[in-house]
Amino acid sequence: MGVPFMLEASAKALAALPGGKLRHACIGVGGMGAHDLQNFKSHPDVEIVALCDVDENNLKKAAEIIPGARLYTDWRELLKKEKNKIDAVNITVPDHNHFIIAMGAIEAGKHVYLQKPMCHDVAEVRVLTEASIKAGVVTQLGTQIASSIGDRTAVKWIKAGIIGKVKHAYLCSNRSGIAGYRLAGPRPAQGQEPPAHLHWDNWIGTAPMRPYAADIYHPAIWRTWQDFGTGWSGDIGCHIFDAVWKGLDLKSPLSVVAEVQKSWEDSPERRGDTWPQGDHITWMFPGNERTASDTLPLEWFDGEFYPPEEVRALYSGGNYPEEAAMLIGTEGALLIPHGGTPVLLPESKFKDYKYPKLEERNHYHHFVEACLDRAKTESYFGQTGPMTEAILLGTVAIRVPGKVLEWDAANMKFPNYSAAEKYLRRTYRKGWQRKGFS
């Protein structure tokens, strides 16, 4: 049974926009945020009028790209002062502050483009999804590859039943040398004074206060810490899941269990602070008309865990992709390389199968077009919210390795293991509380 908010959010703009331009604010303009800014800047009908970042060095660089934009180091001040001057925002900040900023923007009636994962915690995703649908704002999760021809082709093929009924799904992300994901911990014994250009209290936001430490959290290594990130599966999982989720029309899982890196599992200090550098998560989803039985097992592999050799051997076109989804059907298999062209297997059986003709699409521009009432977004929260919930249930399972967690989606409970429910939501620190998270 699915959760009750899986409805499509309205793609209509809330009001006529002055001069046909979308007045936009960028919240988070360093790293991935700089990339996002450039994509919004490249749309002819976008006027970027405000910029925000807790790091004044990032803000200075962005201001050189967008001369005349109004500048902020606190998103709360931006939303207050720009309430009647902007129509939309994009949010590109560490995971632990996704919900509170996006919720503030939605409550202000703004359209929201939010980088993945949608939130840090399952409970946050549920609330944000419901709020976005109630408000009728346009939303888009930053799963850029979802708009690619490759992923959209895969969705069409799955829905068309080209490989028959799907029996099993294998997803992986086995990139090596990821900055920050080889960090084992523990946390530094002593902190340092934050540099003058970094507004550290605003960076910490909803998380527990931690002393600043250079090259440990900001700007790039925050993802490995449980306080701030969601681990590798929570991050890249949103990309690899997307076509599979949409193609199979998946709903909330029935259960989830995780196997983790042994050295992490055996270290109480690391388990209390960081995410493992490898994990294998298995969800059991309810079946439907596109699956071969009344349940569908879906497995995720990263770090030192790899899809089974016999699954990888189905692909004979060279090395198995580091990041991909493989669906095993009753009539064949479908490999969906991340950012690449999907492949029907065995290739000899499907060699004459034609690819659909699809137009190129920019994920950011598609969001803009939806805000201007010209399109429907590819990754609106009504769809990607339930998907993100499922992915983040995997991060809960990581924290209780080996325990099969039965999931009651409607009540947000683990009926067989209530002790894991404490990982569904955080208590925000003093000064950053919100109803339901304080």
Keywords:
438 residues; alpha/beta
Query: From the helix content, strand content and strand pairing, which structural class follows?
Result: alpha/beta
The CATH topology of the domain at 18-145 and 364-389 turns out to be Rossmann fold
CATH architecture of the domain at 18-145 and 364-389: 3-Layer(aba) Sandwich
The main sheet orders its strands as 13-12-11-7-10-9-8-14
Strand content: 15-25%
User: Could you report the average pLDDT, rounded to the nearest whole number?
Assistant: 92
Shape field: globular
Q: H/E series, N to C?
A: EHEHEHEHEHEHEHHEHHEEHEEEHHE
- What profile does the largest beta sheet have? 8 strands, mixed
Uncertain spans: 1-16
Number of strands: 14
The H-level CATH homologous superfamily of the domain at 18-145 and 364-389, spelled out, is NAD(P)-binding Rossmann-like Domain
Termini separation comes to 30 Å
- The helicity comes to 25-40%
What's the gyration radius in Å? Answer: 21 Å
Count up the helices: 13
Pfam families: GFO_IDH_MocA, GFO_IDH_MocA_C2
Protein name: NADH-dependent dehydrogenase
InterPro entries: Gfo/Idh/MocA-like_OxRdtase_N, Gfo/Idh/MocA_oxidrdct_glycsds, Gfo/Idh/MocA_OxRdtase_bact_C, NAD(P)-bd_dom_sf
GO molecular function: nucleotide binding
